[in-house]
C-alpha cells in the first residue's frame, strides 16, 4: 500500500533494497538468528499499530524500515509522541499491539494488562539499551569531568557556580568561569528523567534526597519540553548543563562521567560501555507474569561501563484477540530482539546491543504470545 | 442656551427617519411562513441543537472523566502520588497554581497584544491609504493563519534569544518591581517570552475581526462627524467605537480564547513551575498554564493522572466562562441603556461652540440602531 | 436622550475657538517631526549605547511628545489629541508588524531551502541497506499534505455549515433570548477556551466506543478539530450577522420577501466578507493543531489517504515531531520541520485566497 504512493525514485530505491535484502539473506553477513528464521517474514501482511517511548523512536524507525524491507506486506506505525506512560495507557486500552516504555510495568499496570490481555498477562521485553548523556555548554571548555556527587549537587542546586572547588577538583588544568550554572531539565514526564534520577539517588542517596520520578522533582530550574528541548536550550545557552538520551544529543558537548562512586576514570557514552554496564548491573526480576523479563538495574554495581544506562522495553500481550495480529507482532519483536535487529539499532541510533542471553530469553518469551 | 431650530430639526429627523421601536411590531405582524422558510428555520434550529448536543457532550465527558481524579486522595493514591502529579495533597492544590498561571500568562499576552491589535485595525480601516490598507489587511489575515506550532518554533529560535538582553536590563534596573524580580533567566524561557508570543498570536485574530467591524460602521455617521469638523480621532471615538464596542469585545474574547487554550507555543517556550508567581523574567519561577501543563504531562501520565489533567481542562472551562461572563456584563453595561449618561459627559467636555456637540443627537440614534437590533 | 438635555449640558465656558481660523501646522509637519525624532533619538542613544530597537523606540516616544506639544501650542488640544492618536496607531501598527514579519521571514528563510518538488510530491521514504545495515530516510511531506487536507477539510465541512446556521439561528430566529439560545451561547463561550488536547481525547474516546479500541483515524481527528472550530465559527459569524443593518432586513420584509430569502439573499451576502474572515481564522486555528491529532489520529510516517482507518499525519504534526523527536540527523530533522511549517503557511495562503475569491463573488456589488 505504501509502495503505490511513493514516487518512482523512492519505489526504485525500495525495490533495489528488497532485492538486496533477499540476496543478503543467503549471504551470511550478519548472523541470521533463529527467531527470524522460524517465520517466513515475506508471507506476512497487515498493520502493526504501536507507540510509546520517544527514546526508542529512532531505533524503531530503523527497525521497522528494515522489517518492512523484508516483510513487504507489513506496515508498522510507531507513535513516538505518546511517551512511555501514554504508550502503556493506549496499550492497556487495547489501541496498540505493543507499546514502547522506558520503565517496566508497575503493579497497577500489570493488573490493567491482565484485564486486557487475559490470564497470561502482559510481558516486559527489553528491546533497547542506551544511556543518559550529560551535555553542557561552557564557552572555552571542551571537556568536562564530573563525578556522581558533583552531578547530584549541581542538579539539586547545591553547587551553583562553575568554578566551585568540587568541579575544579574533577577537572585539573581546566579554567572554569565564575558564572552561575544553569541546569536544564525536562518539563514533561519522561523515562529519561526516571533513569537519571535513579542513578542520582542510588549513587548519592545522602545528597540526592528527591524521589525517583518520571517528572523532574527539583523546582526552580530551567525546564524544557522533550530531550530535544534540553539539547537546543543547552547548546543555544551559555553556562548550561542538561541530560538527554544519547540518541538525541547530536553535536552537543558531552561531559565525561566518573565510573563508580570513586576512582579517576571518566567516560562518555559508548555503546560498548552501555553493554558492559548492563552486563554488570542487570538481573532479571520478573514481575510475576510468566515470561516477563523486567530487568533490575543496580547502577552502584557498574565498575567500568557507562554509569548511566537506560533500558527500554516493549510490552506486549500474551493473548491477542486476533491470532494474525499476534503472529505479526511477535515476528516484529522477534526481529528487533535478534542479533541483526540489535545491530541495526546500534548502527542507526547509537544503541548498545543487548547481550545474547537476554535475546534468547526474549525468543523464549515470545513463544507465549498467541 | 435655549433650544435652537437646528437642534429641533435633528430631533424631528430622528423620530421620522430612524424608526427604532416600531420595527419589531412590523415584523411580528408578518406571520405567513413559506415552506423554504420553515425548512431553513428547521435547519438553523437543528444546527443550534446539534451544537448544543456536541458541546454539552464534550462538557459531560470531561466531568465524568475528571470526577475520579478530583475526588481521589492525592497523597495516598498510588497512581497520583508518583510521577507527574506527585507532591500535591489534592486536586485543588494541583489545579490552583495552574488556574493562576493561565490567567496571568494570558493576561500578559492580552495586555501586550490587544491595544496593538486595535491600533492596527484602526490603522487599516481609518488611517492607511486605501490601496495599502488592502495589502495590509491581507498580510494580517495571513498572519492569523500562521499555525501555533510555527509561532512556537519561532519563539524558541528567535524570541528567546531576542528578549535576553531586555530581560537582563529589566531585571537589573527595575528588579524592585515584583514583575521583574527574581533570578534573571539565562535561557530565555520566561513568561515574558511566552507572553510576547501569545500577543503575536492574538494580534491577528483581534485585528482581523475588529477591522471587519470598524469597516462596517455606517459611513454616513462618520462623514457627518467629519463634515461637522470633528477630527479623525473624535470621529472614531464618537462614531466608530460606540458602534463597534460589542464586536471589539468579542474579538478580544476570541483572542483571549486562543491565549487561554494555547498549548504548544507555551509548552515549547516557557520553563514551567507549578507555583503562584508574578515573576516574568525567571527560569525557575514561572507560572504554568493549564493547557501547556496538560500537553507536557499527558504523554507520560497513567490513567488516573490523565483524568486529573482532564480535570484541569474542566477548570479552564470555568475560567473561560467567567471571563466571557464578565465581558458580556461589560457589553451590557456600556450598551444602549448606559450610553446616554456617558454621551452626556462627553458633551460637557467638548468646547461649547464645537460643531461635534450637535452631532450627538445623531450618534445616539446610530448607536441605538445596531445594538438595538442585537437585543431585539 | 433628548436634544434639550444636550443643550442644557453644553454650557459655554471660555472663549469660542473657530478651528478654521486658528493656526495650523504645515502640511508635512508629521514627516519632518519624525525625521527630527529619529535624529534626536540617534543622538541620545549614541551617548548611552546604540541599538536599532532602542533607536526606533526612543524615536517613537520623542515623535509622539513633540507632535503633541507642537500641535497643542499652535493648533488646539483636540487637534493635538488627534495627531498623537494618529501617531500611536501608526506606532502600534509598526510595532506589531515587526514580530509578525519576523515570524514569516524566519519560516521562509529556514524553510525555503527544504522545499523542492521532491519534498512536496513524495511521502517520507525509508531505505534499508542490508549490507551496511544503514537506514536512510528521505523526508517527504506528501503524507502530511494529504493528511492536512483530509482532516482539516472534513473538520471544515462539519463546522462551517453548523456554525453559520447556528449563528443565523441566534441572530435571526432567536430574537428574544430563549433557553436554547442562552444554552448555546453559554456553551460556545465556555468552549472557546477548550484545551486542544482534551478535544482530541474526547474524539478518540467517542470513536473507541463506536469502532473499538484501535480508533485512530483521520476522521476522529477531524471531529476533534470540529469541537475546537465550531465555537470560533459561531462566535465570529454571530458578530458579523449582527452588524448587518436592520434597515436592510426591514426593506426586504417591506417588499414582501420571505424570511428565508431575506437571510440568504440579503443578510448572508452582506456579511460574507466578515463570515469568510471568521471561517478562515477558525481554519487557521485548527490547521496548526498538533496535540488533538496525536490523540485521535496517532502518528505515522507512512502514507495513508483513508480518512476512516489508520494513523494519519498532518503538516503541523510533521513540523512539531521534526523539532521534538529529531532523527539522529538532528539538523536535517529541524530543517524538515521548518519546511513543513512553510508548506503549511503556503497551504493556508492558498485557502485564504480561495476564501477571498468566494467572498468577492458572493458579496453584493458596490458595498465596498
Describe what is shown at a glance.
The complex is a heterotrimer of chains A (370), B (376) and C (368). By secondary structure, chain A is an alpha/beta fold. Helices cover 40% and strands 20% of the residues of chain A.
Q: Using only CA atoms, what is the Rg of chain A?
A: 21 Å
Main β sheet profile of chain A: 9 strands, mixed
The helix-strand sequence of chain B is HHHHHHHHHHHHHH
The portion of residues assigned to helices of chain A is 40-55%
Query: How much is the average pLDDT of chain A?
Result: 84
**Low-confidence blocks of residues of chain A:** 1-37
Helix content of chain B: over 70%
Mean pLDDT rating of chain B: 76
Q: What is Rg of chain B?
A: 26 Å
Let me know the number of strands of chain B.
0
Which structural class matches the secondary elements of chain B? mainly alpha
Roughly how many Å apart are the termini of chain B? 36 Å
Global shape of chain A: elongated
| Poorly predicted segments of chain B | 1-31, 336-376
Q: Whole-Å distance between the termini of chain A?
A: 26 Å
Largest interface: B-C, 141 and 132 residues
Give the SSE string of chain A: HHHEHEHEHEEHHEHEHEEEEHEEEHHH
Strand content bin of chain A: 15-25%
Molecular shape of chain B: globular
Structure description:
- The complex is a heterotrimer of chains A (370), B (376) and C (368).
- Chain A is α/β, with parallel strands linked by helices.
- Chain A is 40% helix and 20% strand.
- In chain A, β1 (45-52), α4 and β2 form a beta-alpha-beta unit.
- Chain A is elongated.
- Chain B is globular, with a radius of gyration of 26 Å.
- Chain B has 14 helices and no strands.
- Chain B is an all-alpha fold.
- Chain B has helices spanning 5-17, 22-28, 35-71, 91-127, 130-144, 148-173, 191-216, 219-227, 232-261, 264-269, 290-297, 303-333, 336-349, 356-375.
- Chain C is mostly helical and 368 residues long.
- Chain C contains 14 helices and 2 strands, in the order αααααββααααααααα.
- Chain C has a two-stranded antiparallel ribbon.
- Chains in contact: A-B, A-C, B-C.
- Chains B and C meet through α1, α2, α3, α4 and α5 of B and α1, α4, α6, α7 and α8 of C.
Amino acid at each position: 500500500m505504501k509502495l503505490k504512493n511513493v514516487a518512482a525514485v523512492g519505489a526504485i530505491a525500495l525495490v533495489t533494497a528488497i532485492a538486496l535484502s533477499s540476496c543478503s539473506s543467503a549471504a551470511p553477513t550478519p548472523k541470521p538468528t533463529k527467531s527470524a528464521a522460524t517465520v517466513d517474514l515475506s508471507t506476512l501482511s497487515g498493520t502493526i499499530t504501536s507507540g510509546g517511548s520517544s527514546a526508542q523512536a529512532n531505533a524503531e524507525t530503523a527497525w521497522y524500515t528494515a522489517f518492512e524491507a523484508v516483510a513487504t506486506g507489513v506496515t508498522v506505525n510507531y507513535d513516538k509522541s505518546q511517551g512511555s506512560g501514554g504508550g502503556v495507557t493506549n496499550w492497556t486500552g487495547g489501541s496498540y499491539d505493543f507499546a514502547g516504555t522506558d520503565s517496566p510495568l508497575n503493579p497497577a499496570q500489570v493488573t490493567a494488562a491482565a484485564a486486557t490481555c487475559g490470564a497470561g498477562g502482559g510481558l516486559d521485553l527489553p528491546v533497547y539499551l542506551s544511556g543518559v548523556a550529560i551535555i553542557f555548554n561552557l564557552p572555552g571548555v571542551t571537556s568536562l569531568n564530573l563525578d556522581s556527587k558533583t552531578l547530584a549537587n549541581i542538579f539539586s542546586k547545591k553547587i551553583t557556580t562553575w568554578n566551585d572547588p568540587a568541579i575544579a577538583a574533577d577537572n585539573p588544568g581546566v579554567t572554569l568561569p565564575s558564572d552561575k550554572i544553569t541546569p536544564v531539565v525536562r518539563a514533561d514526564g519522561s523515562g529519561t528523567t526516571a533513569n537519571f534520577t535513579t542513578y542520582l539517588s542510588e549513587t548519592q542517596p545522602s545528597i540526592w534526597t528527591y524521589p525517583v520520578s518520571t517528572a523532574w522533582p527539583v523546582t526552580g530550574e530551567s525546564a524544557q519540553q522533550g530531550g530535544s528541548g534540553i539539547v537546543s536550550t543547552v547548546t543555544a545557552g551559555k553556562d548550561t548543563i542538561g541530560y538527554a538520551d544519547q540518541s538525541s544529543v547530536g553535536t552537543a558537548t558531552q561531559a565525561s562521567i566518573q565510573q563508580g562512586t570513586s576512582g579517576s576514570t571518566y567516560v562518555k557514552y559508548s555503546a560498548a560501555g552501555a553493554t558492559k554496564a548492563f552486563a554488570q548491573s542487570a538481573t532479571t526480576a520478573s514481575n510475576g507474569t510468566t515470561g516477563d523479563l523486567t530487568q533490575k538495574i543496580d547502577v552502584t554495581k557498574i565498575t567500568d561501563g557507562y554509569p548511566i544506562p537506560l533500558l527500554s522495553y516493549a510490552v506486549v500481550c500474551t493473548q491477542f484477540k486476533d491470532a494474525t495480529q499476534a503472529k505479526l507482532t511477535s515476528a516484529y519483536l522477534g526481529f528487533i530482539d535478534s542479533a541483526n535487529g540489535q545491530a541495526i539499532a546500534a548502527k542507526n541510533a547509537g544503541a548498545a546491543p543487548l547481550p545474547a542471553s537476554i535475546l534468547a530469553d526474549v525468543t523464549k518469551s515470545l513463544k507465549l504470545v498467541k | 442656551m435655549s433650544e435652537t431650530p437646528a437642534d429641533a430639526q435633528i430631533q424631528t429627523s430622528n423620530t421620522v427617519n430612524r424608526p427604532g421601536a416600531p420595527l419589531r411590531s412590523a415584523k411580528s405582524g408578518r406571520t405567513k411562513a413559506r415552506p423554504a422558510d420553515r425548512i431553513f428555520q428547521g435547519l438553523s434550529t437543528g444546527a443550534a441543537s446539534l451544537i448544543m448536543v456536541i458541546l454539552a457532550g464534550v462538557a459531560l465527558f470531561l466531568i465524568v472523566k475528571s470526577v475520579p481524579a478530583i475526588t481521589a486522595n492525592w497523597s495516598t493514591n498510588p497512581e497520583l502520588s508518583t510521577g507527574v502529579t506527585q507532591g500535591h495533597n489534592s486536586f485543588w492544590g494541583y489545579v490552583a497554581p495552574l488556574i493562576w498561571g493561565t490567567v496571568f500568562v494570558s493576561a500578559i499576552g492580552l495586555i501586550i497584544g490587544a491595544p496593538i491589535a486595535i491600533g492596527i485595525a484602526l490603522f487599516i480601516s481609518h488611517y492607511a491609504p486605501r490601496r495599502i490598507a488592502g495589502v495590509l489587511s491581507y498580510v494580517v489575515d495571513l498572519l492569523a493563519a500562521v499555525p501555533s506550532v510555527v509561532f512556537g518554533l519561532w519563539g524558541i529560535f528567535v524570541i528567546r534569544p531576542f528578549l535576553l538582553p531586555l530581560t537582563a536590563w529589566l531585571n537589573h534596573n527595575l528588579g524592585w518591581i515584583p514583575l521583574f524580580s527574581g533570578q534573571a533567566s539565562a535561557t530565555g524561557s520566561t513568561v515574558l517570552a511566552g507572553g510576547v508570543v501569545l500577543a503575536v498570536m492574538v494580534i491577528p485574530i483581534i485585528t482581523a475581526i475588529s477591522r471587519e467591524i470598524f469597516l462596517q460602521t455606517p459611513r454616513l455617521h462618520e462623514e457627518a462627524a467629519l463634515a461637522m469638523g470633528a477630527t479623525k480621532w473624535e470621529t472614531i471615538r464618537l462614531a466608530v467605537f460606540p458602534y463597534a464596542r460589542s464586536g471589539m469585545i468579542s474579538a478580544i474574547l476570541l483572542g483571549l480564547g486562543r491565549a487561554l487554550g494555547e498549548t504548544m507555543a507555551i509548552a515549547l517556550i516557557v520553563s514551567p513551575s507549578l507555583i503562584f508567581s508574578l515573576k516574568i523574567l525567571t527560569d525557575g519561577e514561572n507560572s504554568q498554564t493549564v493547557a501547556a501543563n496538560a500537553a507536557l504531562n499527558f504523554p507520560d501520565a497513567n490513567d488516573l493522572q490523565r483524568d486529573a489533567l482532564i480535570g484541569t481542562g474542566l477548570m479552564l472551562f470555568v475560567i473561560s466562562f467567567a471571563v466571557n461572563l464578565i465581558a458580556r456584563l461589560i457589553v451590557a453595561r456600556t450598551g444602549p441603556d448606559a450610553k446616554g449618561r456617558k454621551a452626556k459627559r462627553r458633551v460637557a467636555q467638548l468646547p461649547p461652540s464645537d460643531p461635534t456637540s450637535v452631532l450627538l443627537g445623531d450618534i445616539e440614534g446610530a448607536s441605538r440602531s445596531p445594538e438595538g437590533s442585537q437585543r431585539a | 436622550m433628548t436634544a434639550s438635555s444636550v443643550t442644557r449640558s453644553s454650557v459655554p465656558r471660555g472663549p469660542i475657538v473657530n478651528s478654521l481660523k486658528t493656526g495650523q501646522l504645515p502640511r508635512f509637519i508629521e514627516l519632518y517631526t519624525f525625521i527630527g525624532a529619529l535624529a534626536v533619538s540617534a543622538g541620545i542613544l549614541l551617548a548611552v549605547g546604540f541599538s536599532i530597537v532602542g533607536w526606533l523606540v526612543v524615536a517613537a516616544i520623542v515623535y509622539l511628545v513633540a507632535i503633541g506639544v507642537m500641535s497643542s501650542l499652535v493648533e488646539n488640544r483636540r487637534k493635538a489629541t488627534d495627531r498623537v492618536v494618529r501617531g500611536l496607531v501608526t506606532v502600534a501598527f509598526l510595532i506589531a508588524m515587526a514580530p509578525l514579519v519576523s515570524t514569516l521571514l524566519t519560516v521562509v528563510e529556514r524553510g525555503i531551502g527544504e522545499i523542492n518538488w521532491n519534498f512536496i510530491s513524495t511521502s517520507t521514504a525509508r531505505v534499508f541497506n542490508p549490507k551496511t545495515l544503514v537506514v536512510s530516510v528521505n523526508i517527504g511531506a506528501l503524507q502530511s499534505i494529504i493528511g492536512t487536507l483530509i482532516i482539516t477539510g472534513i473538520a471544515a465541512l462539519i463546522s462551517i455549515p453548523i456554525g453559520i446556521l447556528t449563528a443565523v439561528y441566534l441572530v435571526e430566529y432567536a430574537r428574544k433570548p430563549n433557553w436554547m439560545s442562552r444554552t448555546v451561547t453559554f456553551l460556545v463561550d465556555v468552549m472557546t477556551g477548550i484545551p486542544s488536547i482534551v478535544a482530541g481525547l474526547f474524539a478518540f474516546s467517542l470513536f473507541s466506543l463506536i469502532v473499538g479500541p484501535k480508533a485512530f483515524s483521520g476522521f476522529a481527528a477531524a471531529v476533534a478539530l470540529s469541537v475546537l472550530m465550531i465555537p470560533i465559527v459561531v462566535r465570529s459569524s454571530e458578530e458579523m450577522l449582527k452588524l448587518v443593518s436592520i434597515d436592510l432586513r426591514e426593506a426586504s420584509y417591506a417588499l414582501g420577501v420571505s424570511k428565508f430569502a431575506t437571510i440568504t439573499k440579503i443578510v448572508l451576502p452582506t456579511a460574507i466578507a466578515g463570515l469568510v474572515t471568521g471561517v478562515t481564522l477558525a481554519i487557521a486555528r485548527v490547521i496548526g493543531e498538533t496535540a488533538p491529532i496525536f490523540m485521535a489520529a496517532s502518528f505515522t510516517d507512512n502514507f495513508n489517504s483513508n480518512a476512516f482507518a489508520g494513523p494519519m499525519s498532518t503538516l503541523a504534526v510533521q513540523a512539531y515531531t521534526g523539532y521534538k523527536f529529531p532523527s539522529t540527523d538532528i539538523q536535517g530533522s529541524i530543517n524538515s520541520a521548518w519546511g513543513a511549517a512553510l508548506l503549511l503557511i503556503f497551504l493556508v495562503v492558498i485557502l485564504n485566497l480561495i476564501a477571498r475569491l468566494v467572498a468577492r463573488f458572493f458579496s453584493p456589488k458596490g458595498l465596498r
